[in-house]
Specification:
It contains one helix and eleven strands. It is mainly beta and 229 residues long. It has one domain: Immunoglobulin-like. Strand 10 and strand 11 form a beta hairpin. The chain starts with 31 loop residues before the first helix and ends with a strand. About 31% of the residues have low confidence.
Length: 229
């Protein structure tokens, strides 16, 4: 299946033709088997596979998840239990979860499901799920510093979590392993950009501008970002 290429590409990103890429290095932050296995497989049926109910999913109206990933004019949260669709548009969801959820793990792996090839990034939390915003951006900037975050790949993608922390009350990191790695067909690198005043910023370096979807799962609480590969 060919990968989606957005027609709305920044001039700072060079176009490249569709090509098959074999993973050279599977991003391993935590156990990757959990990322590609049933534990991180979104379910539209509450309790299916022991996952708990799939929560709010970011979608673009009028798109079919069984077709090739495509761009949407806008991306808005879908009803609980809906199957997420694909888009290259920005997406966001506001929450006021208190106290702030804590990010404890970031893991990623390549997946093929129903004939669709994609790279999956799983963000796991304790204390509930945060709100988030996600978008393609010319440059990911470190909050508080204002310095750019260099990422591998041809396209930059920013995920901002709020309210959220990646540290405890003593200032110690809550992450079980550092956020690092890359080398997947679409996802070339995932990096922490900042953990500052209730906001956690992550940068994703991608091989190109591709369609993505967002899904939420509980028990444990997870935000899942799939990128067409």
């Amino acid at each position: 299946m060919s990968r989606f290429r957005s027609p709305h590409r920044s001039r700072n990103w060079s176009w490249r033709g569709v090509r098959a890429l074999a993973p050279t290095l599977v991003l391993a932050v935590g156990a990757l088997s959990a990322c590609s296995g049933d534990d991180d497989t979104p379910s539209s049926t509450p309790g299916a596979g022991g996952l708990g109910a799939a929560s709010t999913s970011a979608t673009a109206a009028g798109r079919s998840p069984t077709s090739s990933p495509g761009a949407g004019a806008s991306t808005t949260p879908s009803p609980t239990g809906s199957t997420p669709a694909w888009s290259s548009a920005p997406t966001s969801l506001t929450r006021t979860t208190m106290p702030s959820p804590r990010l404890v793990q970031v893991r990623a792996a390549h997946n093929v499901e129903g004939g669709l090839s994609f790279d999956r990034i799983v963000l796991e939390f304790t204390g509930g799920l945060p709100g988030y915003s996600a978008r393609y951006i010319d440059e990911v900037v470190r909050p508080g510093e204002g310095s750019p975050l260099a990422l591998a790949g041809q396209a930059n993608f920013e995920i901002v979590l709020n309210p959220a922390d990646a540290h405890d009350d003593a200032g110690k990191s809550t992450l079980r392993a550092p956020v690092s790695g890359g080398g997947l067909p679409a996802v070339r690198e995932v990096a922490m950009a900042g953990d500052f005043e209730g906001y956690v910023h992550l940068g994703v370096g991608l091989d190109d501008v591709v369609g993505y979807r967002v899904t939420e799962l509980t028990a444990p609480d997870r935000l899942i970002f799939d990128f067409a590969a």
